[in-house]
Design a protein that fits this description.
This protein is of the alpha/beta class. It folds into 2 domains: about 160 residues, Glycogen Phosphorylase B (Rossmann fold, 3-Layer(aba) Sandwich), CATH 3.40.50; about 160 residues, Rossmann fold (3-Layer(aba) Sandwich). The protein has 10 helices and 13 strands. A 6-stranded parallel β-sheet has the order 10-9-8-11-12-13, sandwiched between helices. The protein has a 4-stranded parallel β-sheet with strand order 3-2-1-4. Strands 5-6-7 form a 3-stranded parallel β-sheet. β11, α7 and β12 form a beta-alpha-beta unit. The longest helix is centred in the last third of the chain and has 21 residues. The radius of gyration is 21 Å and the shape is elongated. InterPro entries: Glyco_trans_1. This is Glycosyl transferases group 1. One of its GO terms (molecular function) is glycosyltransferase activity.
Length: about 350
């Protein structure tokens, strides 16, 4: 079986890494995998699968695949117009919530093709808009990369607490909630009695927290990301909505307690006061209360660490890849049997 994965780009980011891993998983299963990308795209990963560069995303340039797997609204239309019977819609996020052309994005979910989503929240959004259900397959982490240090290393009372946060520029990623995080950290600074520093991971370019102790990092791979997770006393996520959100799960796998907004997809692996501290989105005061609570309550922090580790043991990258490949094999065989 051959799978074709059209992409716009392969930059550093969770969604692009998932697509690269999917292609590799098909190769490991003995299938053929081809990634198709316009000449304007960039590649930030080592690829084992074939990479085909095309002039631009158009139906005439999409090669045949027994499965054609677009994951974004801009790659769906040329894929569907070229190979409607072979097309399977992979959804890593509900684009109508944030892209400019919401009507075009919604159209990609209305077509009569199978849909695979990555969380039950995402499945619910698809259903509420187009009355179609998807096959839900949760993402997962690689335990050979994301694993914990000794939990006691996080409870040294003589060191400043390290708060880890992935900072995305508000003009392009308003829904990631960076402005909310800035406001919440002002509250934390006013009320936390000890010393702390915020480690900002800035994928695009350095952002700042005026008046707040912070340091900027730009990790280039998963190993560097995992080191940052393990070095933190707390990981914070402030998104308004997320289809899944791998970073909180990666932090859990590294033995770091998580404070996160209820952004939707996280509910497939986050339970309040069991595996994470969950608060409402777009509410800096509640986010600050969560940070202050976990930093000040060692017993709760240890409980969240253990709960997070248990969840991460279940949601692995291998399980995700195995389920996805099996699902696409089943779709292919059912189509061939008709």
């Amino acid at each position: 079986m051959k799978v074709v994965i059209p992409v716009g780009d392969l930059h550093i980011g969770g969604g692009c890494k998932v697509l690269v891993d999917i292609a590799h998983a098909f190769l490991e299963r003995g299938h053929d995998a081809e990634i198709v990308m316009p000449q304007t795209g960039t590649v930030k990963y080592q690829l084992q699968s074939r990479l085909t560069i095309i002039p631009f995303l158009h139906k005439q340039y999409i090669p045949y695949g027994d499965i054609v797997l677009p994951n974004f609204y801009t790659t769906f239309r040329p894929s569907f117009e070229a190979w409607p019977k072979q097309c399977v819609r992979l959804s890593l996020g509900f684009e109508p919530f944030w892209v400019p052309d919401k009507r075009e994005a919604l159209w990609t979910y209305e077509q009569e093709v199978p849909i695979i989503s990555i969380s039950h929240w995402l499945d619910d959004q698809i259903y509420s808009h187009v009355k179609k259900r998807s096959k839900v397959i949760n993402l997962g982490v690689d335990p050979s990369v994301f694993y914990p240090d000794s939990p006691e290393s996080k409870f040294d009372r003589h060191k400043p607490k390290v708060i880890l946060y992935i900072a995305r520029p508000p003009y392009a990623y308003e829904f990631k909630g960076f402005n909310d995080f800035v406001e919440c950290m002002k509250i934390v600074q006013q009320h936390y009695p000890g010393k702390f520093i915020v480690h900002l991971i800035c994928p695009e370019y350095p952002l700042s927290l005026p008046g707040i102790p912070h340091k900027v990092f730009s990790p280039q791979n998963e190993i560097q990301m995992a080191d940052l997770y393990r070095s933190a006393d707390l990981f914070v996520s402030s998104s308004w909505f997320e289809a899944f959100s791998l970073p909180p799960l990666e932090a859990m796998a590294c033995g770091t307690p998580v404070v996160t907004t209820n952004s939707g997809g996280i509910l497939d692996f986050c339970t309040h006061m069991q595996s994470a501290y969950i608060c409402p989105p777009q509410h800096p005061q509640s986010l600050a209360e969560g940070i202050l609570t976990v930093l000040s309550d060692e017993k709760l922090a240890k409980k969240l660490i253990q709960g997070g580790l248990k969840v991460a043991q279940r949601l692995t990258k291998r399980n995700f890849e195995h389920s996805l490949v099996e699902t696409l094999e089943m779709i292919y065989h059912e189509r061939m049997a008709k």
